[in-house]
Design goal:
Blueprint: H1 3-21, E1 28-31, E2 38-41, H2 49-65, E3 71-80, E4 83-92, E5 95-103, E6 117-118, H3 128-135
Antiparallel strand pairs: 1-2, 1-3, 3-4, 4-5, 5-6
């Protein structure tokens, strides 16, 4: 999945949650998968950032690390400069999280989302466990085998792949 596709999936999830649950939007973790996207609603997400961090660390351990999901999203309702908005944050392995938002339309749907921008590292600190979990996952190509010359694999030269040896 490309990062723009992740943004689209998370924005669509926000609309789906609004249509099925109504307002206020419950805080929801979005976990895109190969066969289906899993939505984990967190109706009792604490108000305290430390307690939120603890809850999302458990979600990350149970649903990201265990299932090796390389990306995530988070949907919630928030107040932005006096307007109620649907906030969507999404991140992927080795790709910093981004944030976007949409006002609620009069027809109980969402307006167009504003262009996404990088999430300030100090904003929404309770989401850090989700990003840390995906960043810690191994990726295809991250695991080197013994034949990889960068890792000192076999070869005719005893210094194959390593630093030069000087007698």
């Amino acid at each position: 999945m490309q990062f723009d596709e992740l943004r689209f999936v998370c924005q669509e999830a926000a609309g789906d949650i609004l249509r099925s649950r109504g307002r206020p939007l419950p805080p929801t973790v979005v976990l895109p998968g190969a066969e289906r996207t899993q939505l984990l609603t967190l109706p009792e997400l604490p108000d305290d950032d430390e307690a939120r961090h603890t809850v999302l660390a458990q979600v990350a351990a149970d649903h990201i690390t265990e299932a090796a999901v390389p990306c995530w999203g988070f949907v919630a309702e928030a107040d932005a400069s006096g307007d109620d908005v649907a906030v969507v944050v999404y991140g992927a392995r080795r790709h910093a999280p981004e944030i976007t938002a949409s006002r609620f339309a009069e027809d109980d749907d969402l307006e167009e989302f504003v262009p996404a921008e990088p999430l300030d590292p100090t904003a929404l600190p309770f989401l850090h466990p989700l990003q840390h979990a995906v960043d810690a996952l191994p990726a295809v190509g991250d695991v080197f085998d013994a034949a990889d010359p960068k890792r000192g694999g076999p070869g005719d030269d005893p210094g194959f792949g390593g630093l030069p040896l000087h007698p």
